[in-house]
């Protein structure tokens, strides 16, 4: 192993662990610097001086309030709460980690996943075109177990801010899970995003850019200089990636026809989405796209049979000078061309505003106040994209707890928050995922690199609200397999308590303030229509607009 140090344009350096290989290729593993520990001043407590404001903070920095959370944070102080959540490495999450480690997929390397859940065509090549594929050994099983792991973490993890930010970044850097070899790198991709979710934005951007899942999804792994002379070697490597080892020379020759459909040179997909969706928005030209793609040529993926992972192939790299927006990249930079581009974009004023607006939209409202976005962007620039400090500036802003700004949960957030509010013991089951899919949000299966919409209006049409009601009722009645709802913590008087007592207890435990008078009147009217049991009353409370607010 050799240590290669690259000095970046900004005032810091990173260490890349590299292992030289043949054919001018180098395996790299990006190791971001240790994340800074951030202290939260006690003066923050003054900004959250009542249960409603504390509830808003918990609700927006987690997947939902668990009964007892509001009281706990009020006693411990919001400064302590935020200090813990912004520094998740100091939170013991061993229970959650133990549950997830029981899922086989979550402990396998990409190569082990490839061997244990082989692509369908490999099975058919070996056993014939009529061979049946065991669904427990298909790539869909990888995705299913990862969905289970994410649900477990989002419901049970004590590191809730890290969990909610992982969801945010996974959607921001969306990939389609069933494209090509992506399933085998999906667990690694999610772990990479989680590990960097509260670091700095340039670090996160580089970690994602070197992720095989992203390189394959947006086709950068096959992007090469038009002057690339070793295309035969690349084609053989690519075919071996897709179809596994060749048993004989004739099999290789039969498959070489597929090379016609492969990239014949530069691929612009990642260069375009890197700017438009990941960093600066629509502030670029086609010339910038081409130059960005040229900077990233040679950023590819090693054969999965050899372990997979990021691979830089100098023979594929465009070695000429490039100009991307205001960045001049001299000729001959090699691997560092891509690193300079990522640092330039990730630490730019355009990215500061673009990311700050997305964060304000995520935490506050579809239309956040311009002053908040601008102030957040200033913090972003001053701290070189320090995500912890950017978030703290949003959480402690004067408008953060204003009733004027609100946002509704998407279907996944609603389901997770309802399970947490019910203080339920659960294990993700097929019926539960059925509800997630019926509401239109299927994790890892959104085909567009834009991800799913973060606009509340997308999730509040009448059909989706009916699905909310169906889920709330099934949950409250304990009709969902592997979920056991516990009412005791929230409703001390149980079934003998009046509906008004239930509403009061629900409001104090998971809303933080009384329900709106209109909501209360609607619930009271529903109860008057029939002798409604406890579970149905609880379902109405879960279905209230106040609970559906993020």
What would you note in describing this structure?
The protein has 550 residues and is an alpha+beta fold. Helix content is 49%, strand content 7%. It is built from 26 helices and 9 strands. The chain has helices spanning 51-60, 69-76, 78-86, 94-101, 110-116, 120-127, 139-156, 160-172, 182-196, 201-209, 212-217, 231-243, 249-255, 269-276, 286-295, 335-346, 349-363, 370-382, 387-395, 411-421, 430-438, 462-476, 499-511, 517-529, 534-542, 545-548, and strands at 2-7, 13-20, 25-31, 299-301, 310-313, 322-324, 327-329, 425-426, 483-484. The strands form 3 sheets. A 5-stranded antiparallel β-sheet has the order 1-2-3-5-4. Helix 10 (201-209) packs antiparallel against helix 16 (335-346) and helix 23 runs parallel beside helix 25. The chain is globular. 44% of the residues are buried. Residues 1-22 and 250-261 have low confidence and may be disordered.
């Amino acid at each position: 192993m050799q240590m290669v140090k690259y000095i970046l344009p900004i005032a810091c350096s990173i260490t890349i662990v590299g292992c030289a290989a043949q054919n001018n290729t180098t395996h790299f593993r990006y190791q971001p610097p240790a994340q800074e520990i951030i202290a939260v001043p006690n003066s923050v407590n003054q900004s959250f001086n009542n249960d409603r404001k504390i509830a808003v903070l918990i609700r927006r920095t987690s997947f939902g309030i668990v009964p007892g959370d509001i009281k706990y944070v009020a006693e411990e102080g919001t400064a302590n709460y935020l200090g813990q959540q912004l520094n998740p490495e100091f939170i013991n999450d061993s229970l959650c980690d133990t549950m997830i480690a029981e899922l086989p997929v979550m402990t396998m390397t990409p190569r082990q996943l490839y061997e244990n859940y082989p692509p369908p065509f490999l099975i058919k090549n070996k056993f014939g075109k009529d061979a049946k594929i065991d669904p427990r050994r298909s790539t869909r099983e990888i995705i299913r177990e990862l969905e289970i792991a994410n649900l477990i973490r989002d419901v049970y993890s004590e590191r809730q801010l890290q969990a909610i930010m992982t969801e945010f970044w996974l959607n921001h850097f969306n990939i389609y899970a069933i494209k090509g070899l992506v399933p085998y790198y999906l667990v690694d991709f999610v772990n990479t995003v989680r590990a960097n979710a509260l670091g700095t934005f340039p670090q996160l951007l580089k970690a994602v850019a070197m992720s095989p899942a992203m390189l394959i999804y947006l086709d950068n792994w096959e992007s090469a200089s038009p002057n690339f002379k070793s295309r035969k070697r690349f084609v053989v490597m690519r075919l071996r990636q897709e179809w596994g080892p060749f048993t004989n020379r004739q099999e290789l020759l039969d498959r070489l026809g597929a090379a016609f459909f492969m990239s014949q040179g530069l691929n612009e997909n990642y260069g375009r989405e890197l700017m438009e969706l990941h960093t600066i928005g629509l502030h670029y030209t086609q010339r910038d796209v081409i130059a960005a793609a040229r900077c990233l040529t040679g950023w590819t993926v090693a054969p999965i049979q050899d372990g997979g992972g990021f691979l830089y192939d100098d023979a594929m790299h465009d070695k000429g000078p490039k100009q991307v927006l205001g960045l001049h990249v001299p000729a001959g930079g090699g691997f560092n061309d891509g690193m300079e581009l990522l640092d330039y974009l990730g630490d730019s004023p355009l990215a500061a505003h673009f990311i700050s607006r997305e964060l304000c939209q995520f935490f506050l409202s579809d239309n956040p106040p311009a002053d908040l976005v601008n102030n957040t962007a200033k913090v972003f620039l001053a701290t070189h994209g320090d995500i912890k400090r950017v978030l703290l500036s949003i959480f402690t802003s004067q408008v953060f707890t204003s009733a004027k700004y609100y946002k509704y949960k998407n279907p996944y957030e609603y389901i997770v928050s309802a399970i947490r509010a019910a203080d339920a013991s659960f294990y993700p089951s097929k019926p539960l995922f059925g509800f997630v899919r019926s509401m239109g949000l299927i994790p890892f299966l959104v085909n567009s690199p834009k991800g799913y919409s973060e606009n509340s209006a997308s999730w509040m049409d009448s059909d989706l609200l009916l699905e909310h009601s169906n889920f709330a009722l099934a949950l409250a009645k304990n009709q969902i397999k592997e979920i056991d709802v516990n009412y005791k913590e929230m409703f001390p008087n149980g079934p003998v308590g009046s509906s008004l007592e239930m509403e009061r207890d629900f409001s104090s435990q998971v809303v933080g303030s009384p329900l709106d008078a209109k909501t209360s009147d609607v619930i009271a009217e529903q109860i008057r229509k029939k002798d409604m049991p406890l579970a149905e009353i609880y379902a109405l409370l879960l279905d209230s607009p106040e609970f559906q607010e993020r």
